[in-house]
């Protein structure tokens, strides 16, 4: 591709947005890492924050202070894989954080991806969900519900119709906090997963609008988003306060097919012979009865 002397405005806007996100992430990780944690002696002079200075991180990563400053300030158009690895090591990033940094440092996207077409539920994941005897939920981009089974709606007490937003329910519906006993333990990683998705798709305007809506509607979302933490929806436990079955405990597992990482089958696993496992048949019958009543 021929490099133009003057880039068109959309590219410049994209570069500013991408590099701003990169700089903000690096600052957040730098601010949370002290010289002692990084294994170095603090540079002399007064410190305004407990975290690393730019110059200290630059030395740890083997970069000149000017080079690192250009990266953090969004003035470095290209960032090599070697520099991403060096910064990841210096900051002690975990695997998800390292991948997030790689996404943010990738070449600037010239045009937003067309996401107007609705996602279709993967037939294979649908078959798996239909054969589950535990709650199951198939989520697509931006936390959109692609499919769910009857047990899922019975456990959460929400219809979760295909096309609805699981994230809007989680953060904006007050019943979600009442139903999920350890709501914060489950909700904080959901915000980290949103930020991770935003790093993969910086041109996704609908995702940006959803984030803005949730931040405006829930101060917890705003606080977690500003922390710049990232997750990839790994295993987590969920405790449910159910009006009929009482206290339920699930292990939440995420299943992703290699050819389509944009869909996730969320499976609510249970310990064999546990009170929750013994209550699932009751919940299944109760959920079916409610569906028949609502028809």
TrEMBL record:
Gene3D superfamilies assigned: 3.30.450.180, lambda repressor-like DNA-binding domains
A UniProt-annotated Pfam family: MLTR_LBD
InterPro entries (alphabetical): Cro/C1-type_HTH, Lambda_DNA-bd_dom_sf, MLTR_LBD
Location of the HTH cro/C1-type domain: 51-98
SUPFAM superfamilies for the chain: lambda repressor-like DNA-binding domains
Protein name per the record: Transcriptional regulator
Organism: Streptomyces violascens
